[in-house]
Amino acid sequence: MANAISKTAYYTLACRDADAHKPRPLCGDTFAARFMNDEARRIWSRFQSFTRANTSNAGRHQIIDALVQEELDRAPQARVVVLGAGFDTRAYRLRGGQWLEVDEPAIITHKDAQLPVTEAKNQLERLAIDFQAESLADRLAPYRDAKRTHLIIEGVLMYLTHAQRRDMLAVLRELFPQHAVYCDLMRASFQRDHGGELHKAIAELGTTFRDLTDTPEALFLEAGYTQASVTSIPLRTMELAGQRVPAFMIRRLLPSVRDGYRIFKFERS
């Protein structure tokens, strides 16, 4: 059932499930357990030892949660599109939003079976797309909206080529003229210096990071976006976990860690 990318979705799912069972969870995704099956547990067994990366996955999710919730508190009926949604459950956890989850048919089918849209506390639709064979522009065309839209692209961009990222942004600008993008961007130096073993394990699942650079935000800035905010994933994760000493070290002494992997919010209007 799982292709290479959905295997990484199982990994990030398992990170959130493990986080939810901690005494002090970072993102508290209690719905993650609904999707944990034998495949998810098998993949988790291969990554369980990557404690810092696993915790950062939960921290990454919470950072985006907070940014999106801040917007939904101001505009509860806003459209939120989650591209490459994986096992995202924000439509069940956050307050407000008209949600659209977009991903491969196998993931959508599994999600529909284990966590139906009728259980969501917000309006939720799921859209299945074969990213290799179907046009994102064509599939999203019925959802074209001139009103401000929020686009979550989490754990996706590092698996795309530069050309694929550029083409995706062109589609989003055409369909949603006014929007905000929430995404994680990793520097090539961070992956090289701090993520080698994790990336090796990810590669064993059949996928790999592509076209990483030390200025990943340049793609957005060159496309006319404005950088609205940037948050260090390692630093904010330590702060959320109440680990003051590691947070201090990352903030003051380890700029390559602090700035190597971050959540960006970009505005386009």
Automatic annotation (TrEMBL):
Gene3D superfamilies: Vaccinia Virus protein VP39. The keyword Plastid does not apply. GO terms for biological process: methylation. This is Class I SAM-dependent methyltransferase. Pfam families: LCM (PF04072). Keywords: Methyltransferase, Transferase. The keyword Cell membrane does not apply. One of its GO terms (molecular function) is methyltransferase activity. The lineage of its organism: Bacteria, Pseudomonadati, Myxococcota, Myxococcia, Myxococcales. InterPro entries: Ppm1/Ppm2/Tcmp, SAM-dependent_MTases_sf.
